[in-house]
Design a protein that fits this description.
71% of the residues lie in helices and 3% in strands.
């Protein structure tokens, strides 16, 4: 049941359906690992509400970084751990695109569950705060989108790695720039700092989430503040001409397709028939 059958799975849709079914079955057969992945979400969410009494800029930052972590960590081992299987099945004309779609589909389900749990916990905690969590439903979908893009980021790390040990070593190296160039931890005043920030998932995720969560609690002034204004000051940018979350969504979509294309090219060159 786990072997690729070239006589049965010859077209794009047949391959995609079969690969999704196999990958989903594999995930459900390893419930312990799946439970560990899902449980990361409530654990981190409870730590956030334990430490932060109000919705401030750091809470938004943790939503973004948690989403990037979920997506990257969930996907990082998914290609390299199957390299021998994929190499064999490529000999029978298994398509790269159906293979990637199957990964993205199943990982997206996991990411949506993680995102929903995370935001619902925060929403329940902060609903009576001075600054409640605004638009929780929209925030779930925004966190989910970040997770999906990060899935592709993690799959890219997996595709360039030769062993699972190597890819696990790459994860912290890849995530630290996402933290540093998000516009929260460090002010983007110098050009050599600003330019790399434009490439980061975290930067556009932060600007997007500050459009959804209009107000935050300023711990210094002890009052409400406009979250986007705080972020703009850190970024040293004025992007009022992009007065819509559609721009951030567009950038994240570009990153998604960039990573997808990069993975495709890597797998095509490595496992060419």
């Amino acid at each position: 049941k786990t072997q690729f059958n070239p006589n049965r799975h010859t077209n794009f849709f047949s391959q995609t359906f079969w690969l999704i079914t196999r990958y989903l079955s594999r995930k459900l057969n390893d419930l312990e690992t799946l439970a560990i992945q899902i449980c990361q979400s409530p654990i981190i969410a409870f730590l956030v509400i334990l430490i932060f009494k109000e919705v401030d800029q750091i809470v938004l930052f943790f939503i973004v970084i948690s989403a990037i972590w979920f997506g990257t960590n969930n996907a990082a081992k998914e290609i390299v751990s199957e390299s021998s299987i994929f190499k064999r099945e490529r000999m029978y004309n298994q398509g790269i695109i159906p293979y990637l779609i199957s990964k993205i589909f199943v990982l997206s389900i996991i990411g949506f569950i993680q995102s929903a749990i995370f935001i619902l916990i925060l929403s329940e905690k902060y609903k009576s705060s001075a600054v409640p969590l605004e638009n929780p439903t929209t925030l779930i979908f925004w966190m989910f989108i970040i997770t999906v893009v990060s899935n592709l980021f993690g799959l890219t790390l997996s595709a360039i790695s030769s062993t699972t040990e190597k890819v696990m070593g790459l994860i912290p190296i890849a995530l630290i720039p996402q933290i540093m160039f998000s516009g929260v931890m460090v002010k983007m005043t110098a050009v050599f700092v600003k330019i790399p920030s434009f490439l980061m998932i975290s930067r556009w995720s932060m600007t997007g989430i500050t459009r959804l969560q209009t107000n935050v609690f300023d711990n210094i002034l002890k009052k409400k503040a406009i979250s986007l204004d705080i972020l703009k000051e850190n970024l040293g940018e004025t992007y009022d001409q992009f007065n819509s979350i559609q721009f951030e969504l567009y950038v994240l979509c570009l990153q998604f397709f960039f990573f997808f294309t990069l993975i495709y090219l890597i797998l095509r060159d490595r496992y060419s028939n």
